[in-house]
Structures are given as C-alpha cells and as structure tokens.
Design a protein that fits this description.
CATH architecture: Beta Barrel
CATH topology: Lipocalin
CATH class: Mainly Beta
Strand order of the largest sheet: 1-3-4-5-6-7-8-9
Number of domains: 1
Number of helices: 5
Shape: globular
Helix content: 10-25%
Number of strands: 9
Distance between the termini: 52 Å
Radius of gyration: 21 Å
C-alpha cells in the first residue's frame, strides 16, 4: 500500500510544461512600443553628421507610438497622446510571417505606403527585434520617413554608395 501511495505521489507531482506560445501568439498578444531604432553601421550623410540612432533623433510624438498586430493579419499604429500635429492619425496595414517565420512582412511601413520585409532577429513574449537591409537611398529614405526624419536627407549629402551589410534594426518591447 505504501509503495502504491509513493508511485501515485511521484506521478502526480510531475507537471507537464505549458506549450510555448507560437510566434503569432507572441506578436499578437501585446501592444509594442519602440525601444531602439538604429542604422548599423551609422551612415555619414554629410561632412558633419552621421545617422546611427534613429530613436535618439525622433520627436517624442513618434517615440510613444504603439503597434498592435492582430491575428487576422492586420496591424495598427496608435499615435497615442503625443501627436506630431493636430491631424496626426493612426494608420494601419497588413502583416504576415514568411520563410518559416524568419521574416516579417509589413505593408505601409511607417505610413509611407511602402511594404517592408524584416528579418526576425528575436521574438519573445516581451521583445521583438527586426532588421531590414539598407542597400540604396530609397530604402534609407523609407526608414527615415517612417519616423519623420526624411528632412535629414533633404539637407544632407547622402553617400552615393551605402556600405554592404548596412541595416536598420528596430527593437520593440511589449506593453
């Protein structure tokens, strides 16, 4: 009888691990706030100025934007309480994982009407880090315009060739 009780207690104390949430569940369970946004390596856009940290150059009205991914493949960016101007509106687009969830496609990235496909560097329940290769001025312009920094290019001399391996890295944290 004692042996039977010990066997019962042993098996009843074993717990099954909860299944790891899918990447879709991780992405759609939270609102996401920008933690960092940068160009790596930093680009020299004129003789005096380089562009590395985009986050540090953003107006506060971009820093508090919240992105919400929905399980139906839509996403919305809530411009929050800090608006850049009175007509600042929320915007939306579609999203989808690609290549076995190693890529994240977003239409209308940064309300630029431009689709962007990011590499997924990290996706946990609390952090998502994405990267986007920048190999030409058009790609650089898309990234800067998404955060209201396209004026940097209007007053600067952009390098005619962007170094190989240059990328935009975006890290967001869950709220």
């Amino acid at each position: 009888m004692g042996l039977l009780l010990m066997v019962f207690l042993f098996f009843s104390s074993c717990k099954k691990k909860d299944a790891e949430p899918s990447n879709t569940q991780k992405l759609t369970s939270y609102n996401w706030l920008i933690a960092t946004a940068k160009i790596d390596p930093a680009l020299q856009v004129n003789s005096l100025e380089s562009v590395g940290s985009i986050y540090d150059r953003m107006e506060p009205c971009y820093q508090d934007d919240k992105t919400k991914f929905s399980s139906d493949g839509a996403y919305t960016v809530d411009k929050s309480t800090n608006k850049c101007n009175g007509s600042d509106q929320n915007f939306s687009g579609s999203w989808a994982f690609q290549n076995n969830e190693s890529k994240l496609y977003m239409s209308n990235f940064g309300n630029t009407s431009t689709p962007v496909t990011f590499s997924v560097n990290e996706l946990s329940s609390f952090v998502v880090t994405l990267s986007y290769p920048i190999s030409n001025t058009a790609e650089l312009t898309t990234v800067l315009k998404a955060y209201g920094l396209d004026g940097l290019l209007q007053k600067a001399t952009v390098p005619s060739s962007i170094p190989s391996g240059t990328k935009f890295i975006l890290t967001m944290r869950a709220l």
